[in-house]
Amino acid sequence: MNFDEMYKNILNEHRQVFETLDQSKLQEFMELIINAKRIFLMGVGREGLATRGFAMRLMHMGKETHWVWDDTTPNVQPGDLFIFTSGSGEIGHIHFVAEMAKAAGAKLAVVTGTRTGKTPALADFVLWVPAHVYKGTDKVVPSKQPMGNLFEQTLFVLFDIIVMMLMDTLNISEAAMISRHRNVE
Fold first, then answer.
1. What is the pLDDT of residues 36-76, one digit of tens each?
2. What is the pTM of this model?
3. DSSP reduced 3-state for 138
4. Catalytic residue numbers, as ranges
């Protein structure tokens, strides 16, 4: 494939994923975020990069947000929301942390491409992203891209859409978000 064929194919794959996404589940996910006292997030690899970007934007919105791998992350408590991204739903150390967070009383939300994985089965809420994912087993939008590219790319865009929808819902301006941006860089 040449460049034009590749980008058109990738954009078409994304269109299919976003047109298939359950918007009612998206609204439910947003309500969990709105109502959470504190939000913890975890993901690994390229999924983790998208999730970490989402954590940053939630903080810019004024939510108390913690990335689980940071040394300054406090203990998880009842009333907290813990968002995990696990494309296959079978990532061992993510599942282990999910079990610990649930035992600590947090509400678990898993964003996944495989609803039948062991971590989605443990979760209180599952946001299914119907995109091809590395080691996934669900019937999803197929991809000509390698490994989990489609799922990982979708997370970046989906999380940005969620932030923009939350900004509208909560009447948060971009200026308010900019005021919370790190100012020591």
1. 999 999 999 999 999 999 999 999 999 999 999 899 999 99
2. 0.95
3. coil
4. 152
